[in-house]
Design brief:
Strand order of the largest sheet: 1-2-4-3-5-6-7-8
Radius of gyration: 18 Å
Number of strands: 8
Order of helices and strands: EEEHHEHHEHEHEHHEHH
CATH class: Alpha Beta
Number of domains: 1
CATH topology: Rossmann fold
Helix content: 25-40%
């Protein structure tokens, strides 16, 4: 049965969620709800990387949650039910043969339905949420923006994606948006959204085992930091060519590499304190978690 109500208790925990897009593929909602959180306070939806470690990404946000009274919700897409990149950061848009699946079965609408279930459960009155994703989660959230017409988000941050879907109708998905039935109006909507591309300036490892090496990714640059610049520059040029506004912003996080904990701290400070912290504030106490 599809989940329509979510009622996170105070503290840290997890809840099952069955989404209407793929009811045979359950999602786990890892959450943290501070005791001081009120129904009018902000909701932050956090998307994990390929480690499928939504519980850890939730924990990265607990300090900020306590400080700013945030409800943290980390939808977790397991390898069992969403195997490989195609099922998670690829959004189940394409089937095994590369054909486009029906839009109703794309995964990217799940976050909007999670927020609706939280409202139905009475824990929030917010009509919109903040959305953050790192690594594969950064791939996920920027493709969510590209493919969803209804966006219940105040702000979206894509942190350190391995590669990007470009804002063009002239390249096939995943490299671009061709083949999905979109038009210039869809492209204009995406470019107009004030998306933040958050890039660690030390995310420059060209030999990392988890760095995408498909030809489309390699064409965007030798490492993630270069690819972030390529993506932003491409968007600015394409918007100018089509005479469209581009409201995207590339924000650099100095001293940080491919580190989900540090990038989560940077995103929280950017949103709720209007700043990027120093490297001393962002430096994790343990090994980075991807």
């Amino acid at each position: 049965m599809v989940t329509t109500h979510l009622e996170p208790a105070v503290g840290r925990g997890s809840l099952p969620f069955t989404d209407s897009s793929n009811p045979d593929r359950p999602i786990v909602i890892n959450y943290y709800r501070p005791a001081a959180h009120r129904r009018t306070d902000c909701v932050v939806i956090v998307q994990h990387g390929m480690g499928r470690n939504g519980d850890e990404y939730r924990d990265f946000w607990i300090e900020a949650a306590d400080k700013h009274n945030l409800l943290i919700v980390a939808p977790t897409f397991s390898d069992e039910h969403f195997p490989k990149a195609e099922s998670y950061n690829g959004g189940l848009v394409l089937d095994a043969d590369g054909a486009v699946r029906p839009r109703a079965n794309w995964v990217y609408g799940a976050q909007a339905r999670v927020l609706a279930a939280l409202r139905a459960g009475g824990v929030t009155q917010r009509e919109t949420a903040h959305l953050f994703g790192h690594s594969a989660g950064g791939q996920y959230v920027h493709r969510l923006l590209a493919t969803q017409a209804e966006l219940p988000f105040d702000s979206v941050i894509a942190g350190n994606p391995g590669w990007y879907t470009l804002p063009t109708l002239e390249r096939r998905f995943l490299e671009g948006l061709d083949g999905l039935g979109f038009d210039v109006g869809d492209l204009a909507r995406w470019l107009a959204f004030p998306m933040i591309i958050l890039a660690g300036d030390q995310d420059i490892d060209t030999t990392a085992s988890n760095l995408p090496r498909n030809p489309e990714a390699v064409a965007q640059g030798p490492h993630r930091f270069a690819r972030a610049h390529f993506f932003h520059d491409f968007a600015v040029r394409e918007a100018a060519r089509l005479n469209l506004p581009c409201n995207w912003r590339l924000v650099t996080v100095p001293g940080v590499g491919h580190d989900g904990a540090a990038m989560s701290r940077a995103a929280a400070a950017w949103w709720f304190e209007g700043r990027i912290p120093t490297i001393a504030e962002l430096q994790p106490q343990a090994a980075p978690v991807l």
